[in-house]
Amino acid sequence: MKTTRNTPAKTAILEIFEKSKTALSHTEIQKQLNDVCDRVTIYRILDRLMNDDIIHKISNLDGTVKYAKCNHSHQRVHIHNHAHFSCENCNEITCLENVKPSYIMPHNYKVKEINFTLSGLCPKCLNSDI
Amino acid sequence: MKTTRNTPAKTAILEIFEKSKTALSHTEIQKQLNDVCDRVTIYRILDRLMNDDIIHKISNLDGTVKYAKCNHSHQRVHIHNHAHFSCENCNEITCLENVKPSYIMPHNYKVKEINFTLSGLCPKCLNSDI
DNA sequence: AAAATAAAGCAACAATGTTGCGATTGTGTA
DNA sequence: TACACAATCGCAACATTGTTGCTTTATTTT
Questions:
Q1: Cross-chain residue pair A61–B59, CB shorter than 8 Å
Q2: Helix and strand numbers, DSSP H then E, in chain A
Q3: Assigned domain for A1 exists
Q4: pLDDT in tens, B7-28
Q5: What does the alpha-carbon distance between residue B128 and residue B130 come to, in Å, rounded to a whole number?
Q6: Nucleotides of chain C within 7 Å of a protein C-beta?
Q7: A79 in contact with B at a CB cutoff of 8 Å?
Q8: Residue A113 belongs to a domain
Q9: Does the structure show a pLDDT above 80 at B72?
Q10: CATH code, domain with B55
Q11: How far apart are CA B36 and CA B30, in angstroms?
């Protein structure tokens, strides 16, 4: 079985996620890393972190892809069924851990994962009178 | 004020949407068009159709972007608040027009648009014993 | 310390989306 | 119906994002 290693780049990326309150794109991570490692390495680390359920992927309405730390909290089985909020002004994506949609599905569909993204104005931008 | 025109390429693309039961990516449209027009033209037509609220954009969990016809039905104000289903087997995206999530938002957020995408197995793939 | 192998770096490539500009073509109006 | 003019198109060039193969580096285990 594959063992995962702790490398400087991985540690650096985890620290960036730890510090950030919002989801980050590959590009944003790269800027914050300041050439700690190669662009490709970032992709590979993100892949590994997703496999290990440490981060999750979020795709915005516009097709932008971002990543955020998973909040494992209490659940034994880890499902990313919380909502995300995408601000159309500052483009920040935040996890709304407590917002869970309820819905009724037609028969014959097997739902395994859900992605619930709301967009509009975040509190910060709403208050700055746009 | 800008007037929009009906060009052969736009008509062809609209017909493709009309015939398709699932959402289509730029690439899928291009294949079906069989060199009716340039790749760039497709992008521009899709942009126009979105501005005119004739189609809407859907971004999948994996970051894939697709487009589908809007169903204007009864609502006066057109909001894309229906759900989409993305099949992890056949990769087709279908609009679930009647599935509308209910949710409770924290204060201070102004929600303008929502994107609710479920993924798993569609009826077609569920029945073919995977 | 050496062996085993996960991870990094580099280069090259693929897919997707954007921009500028000159040429073409729909369409309202004369 | 013909004209004028703006909307649209095609092309080339570029930007961004993501992937792959292969060699080298470095972490971990023995």
A1: yes
A2: 4, 5
A3: no
A4: 999 999 999 999 999 999 999 9
A5: 6
A6: 5-12, 15-20, 25-28
A7: no
A8: yes
A9: no
A10: 1.10.10.10
A11: 9
Measured between alpha carbons, how far is B58 from B70 in angstroms, rounded to an integer? 11
Check: CB of residue A81 under 8 Å from CB of residue B74.
no
Q: Among all chains, which residue has been given the structure tokens 């599935």?
A: B99
Domain for residue A3, yes or no? no
Interface test with chain B among A61, A102, A125, A128, by most B beta carbons within 10 Å: A61
Residue A108 contacts strand D, CB under 7 A: no
Q: What is the span of the domain harbouring residue B105?
A: 8-127
- From the Cβ of A78, is strand C under 7 Å away? no
Confidence of residue A73 (pLDDT cuts 50, 70, 90): low
The contacts of residue A117 (CB under 8 Å, 6+ apart) are A58, A59, A60, A61, A83, A84, A85, A86, A93, B114, B115, B116
pLDDT band at A90 (very low <50, low <70, confident <90, very high): confident
Tell me the pLDDT band of A68, cut-offs 50, 70 and 90. very high
Amino acid B56 reads H
Of A102, A108, A118, the CB nearest to B102: A102
Flag whether residue A44 sits within 8 Å of chain B, measured between CB atoms.
no
Q: Count of domains in chain B?
A: 1
Pick A96's closest partner by Cβ from B60, B106, B120: B106
Within a domain: A2 = no
Instruction: Compare CB distances from B115 to A65, A100, A117 and report the shortest one's residue.
Output: A117
Give the residue-averaged pLDDT of A100-115. Answer: 88
Q: How many angstroms separate the CA of residue B105 from the nearest CA in chain A?
A: 6
Inter-chain Cβ pairs, chain A and chain B, closer than 8 A: 121
Residue B71 has pLDDT above 70, yes or no: yes
Decide if pLDDT at A127 tops 90: no
